[in-house]
Write a structure and sequence with these properties.
Elements lengths: L1 H8 L5 E6 L4 E6 L16 H7 L22 H7 L1 E10 L2 E8 L2 E2 L4 E5 L4 E8 L11 H14 L4 E6 L4 E5 L4 H10 L1
Parallel strand pairs: 1-8
Antiparallel strand pairs: 1-2, 2-7, 3-4, 3-7, 4-5, 4-6, 8-9
The structure holds 3-[3-(1H-pyrrolo[2,3-b]pyridin-5-yl)phenyl]propanoic acid.
The site of 3-[3-(1H-pyrrolo[2,3-b]pyridin-5-yl)phenyl]propanoic acid has 14 residues, from helix 1.
């Protein structure tokens, strides 16, 4: 989600969907630019694989021009990958759809071209590793609360959270930003 919010802060993402599935896996879909799919200039493998497996990778996060970040400079998505039993990455970019899968942080498929799409964005689906976490069940309220805060801090960014375990959903869009937060708090 923080990587998707970074895309929103850069002006390229308007919609983020977070879905908690029945098996407590989670899917995060954004309509950002999609991760670059070229070969990484120094690592000599596809950039998404570098972003997903190397802490602090991601290229743009280290650039001086990149002063705002909802995440922690490229750490998050690789940390999520390392702590996941499995993770499935889908990238829509340049008219194409790419896919790669990982187990416990390690790639188990190459990055492959899967089809065509007129949209752009990134989808990350993952299941927290029960060998690492003693509890892998998500709290809808905790996640909804955090995503609501993110929505207030990013006016115009539309965040939807869907819980398939209970059919609960929250539609978060705060066009008025922090001013709206104060007014909602007062009311
Ligand atoms: C590196 C560079 C660019 C975008 C991203 C990473 C990116 C990562 C994630 C993770 C989840 N959603 C994401 N969306 C984008 C910039 C790409 C460009 O310059 O076109």
């Amino acid at each position: 989600v923080d990587n998707s919010v970074d895309e929103a802060l850069a002006g390229h993402c308007k919609h983020i969907e977070v879905k908690i599935h029945f098996d407590n896996s989670v899917t995060v879909v954004d309509d950002g630019r999609g991760m670059p799919t070229d070969i990484h200039p120094t690592e000599h493998r596809p950039t998404p694989e570098v972003i997903m497996t190397v802490l602090h990778a991601g290229g743009k996060f280290d650039k001086k021009s990149y002063k705002v970040s909802g995440g922690l400079h490229g750490v998050w998505v690789s940390a999520v990958n390392a702590l996941s039993e499995w993770l499935k990455l889908e990238i829509r970019r340049g008219g194409k759809v790419y896919h790669q899968e990982y187990n416990r942080g390690a790639p188990v498929t190459p990055l492959v071209e899967m089809g065509v799409s007129s949209r752009t964005g990134t989808t990350v689906a993952f299941k927290a590793d029960a060998d690492i976490f003693s509890r892998v069940e998500y709290s809808f309220d905790t996640l909804a609360q955090r995503l609501r805060e993110i929505a207030y801090l990013n006016p115009g960014l539309h965040i939807v959270i869907i819980d398939e375990r209970t059919d609960q959903t929250q539609d978060l869009l705060a066009s008025g930003g922090i001013a709206q937060f104060v007014s909602d708090l007062n009311s």
